[in-house]
Amino acid sequence: MLRYQENNELHMDFHGTTNTTLNYIAENYGVDALKMILRKTGHDVYKSIREKLEKGDASELIEHLNWFFNREKGRYNLSVSQDEIIFEVLECPAIRHLRKLGLEPSEHVCLQTECVNEGMCEGTPWKSSLKVISEGHCIQTFKKGE
Amino acid sequence: MIPSDHFVRFYNEVFKFLDERNELEGFYKEIGKHQELHCYQCFMDKGLDGMEEYWGHIRVEENCVSSSEIIDGVRYSFMNRCPSLSKVLDCDAEPCEKYCLHCPGWVIPLLTKCGFYYASCVIDTKEPRCRSFQTEDRDKASAVIQKWIDDGFNPDLIFSNIDDFETVEANKKFRLDRLQKKEK
Q1: A-B contacts at Cβ under 8 angstroms
Q2: Domain-embedded: residue A132
Q3: Which of A46, A103, B5, B95 satisfies CB 3.0 to 4.6 Å to A6 for a cystine?
């Protein structure tokens, strides 16, 4: 069950504002400050996902990834095993929309994914990692440790 | 990716970070500049009708419970359930006390640039409702703001560009001259 169940109209232009915000914080306060804010977003906003991960339950994380990438018509493959979740994004809806708006994706655009995922996993047996393959194509991995 | 649905909850974290440093203003200006991409041409070319068009589209996409009307050269907007603050209040992270201030924060520089007076009456920063107006008439702008104060709204939560009338008037002249040239 998702903590934030969103099913109304979508305002994709928020990706543009996110892009501007990523650049603004990095340019004025440094990349470490941006990472801190993004990790805190993952940790605090997604408390419900994190608390379930703490108990070894990845169900809300999986539902979150499926729900929002489907809503934004992203193309992806999701594979789930007992101790590993591999989420391969084949076409990132955020980057697709930035291009549609004529905006250059921030050099920190993938950092949002990396740090928010890290924040969600903080203090849990799960570790996240991100491998960027090309623009809009990445592999997000969540692996359960000891 | 932070889903577009969750952007405002990220925004809230950014506001808290900036507010701790007393540096929200610079960010509002940056967002105002970004919003020019969506609004500047529309407002410059179509004036209040352009604002109705832009914010009408926002009303649907952002799921606002709001209404607006243009009466005698003033566009009035009534936000009865702001989806943005509603999400921030429905969040496991603490809300930024100044969350509502971002709206006048980015709209004021943009509308000043377009040569329009604007005021927003936030009512209460913990309630997802507010009211605002746009007009190119300084006397009408002053009258609406005075009425809000007479009606008992907190003057500290009324934000406007009325004091920057010299800039608004200069930009209004630029806009009207530009429109006249276009018509020729």
Answers
A1: 108
A2: yes
A3: B5
* Residue B62: CB atoms within 10 Å: 20
ipTM: 0.96
Give the model's confidence band at A26: pLDDT under 50 very low, under 70 low, under 90 confident, else very high: very high
A126 occurs within a structural domain: yes
Q: Which of A13, A4, A116 is nearest to B38 (CA)?
A: A13
Letter for the amino acid at A126?
A: W
Confidence at B183, pLDDT banded by 50, 70, 90: confident
Whether residue A45 lies within 8 A of chain B, CB to CB, comes out as yes
**Which residues are within 8 A (CB) of B94 and not within 5 positions of it... i.e. 6 or more apart?**
A44, B16
Using the Cβ of A25 and the Cβ atoms of chain B, whether some distance falls under 8 Å is answered with: yes
Mean pLDDT, residues B155-165: 97
Contact B5 A68 (CB under 8 A): yes
Residue B82 has pLDDT above 70, yes or no: yes
pLDDT computed for residue A83 by the predictor: 94
Domain range holding A74? 14-144
Q: What is the DSSP letter of B126?
A: T
Find the CATH number of the domain harbouring A37: 3.30.1380
Check A93 against B1: CB less than 8 A apart.
yes
Q: State the smallest CA–CA distance between residue A45 and chain B in angstroms.
A: 5
Domain containing residue B40: 4-183
Would you state the pLDDT for residue A5?
82
Closest CB to B63: pick one of A8, A93, A102. A8
Give per-residue burial for A106-120: e unless 16+ CB within 10 Å, then b. Answer: bebbbbbbbbbbbbb
Give the number of domains in chain B. 1
> Is A2 inside a domain boundary?
no
- Which residues of B make CB contacts under 8 Å with A? 1-11, 13-14, 17, 26-27, 30-31, 34, 37-38, 58, 60-63, 87, 90-94
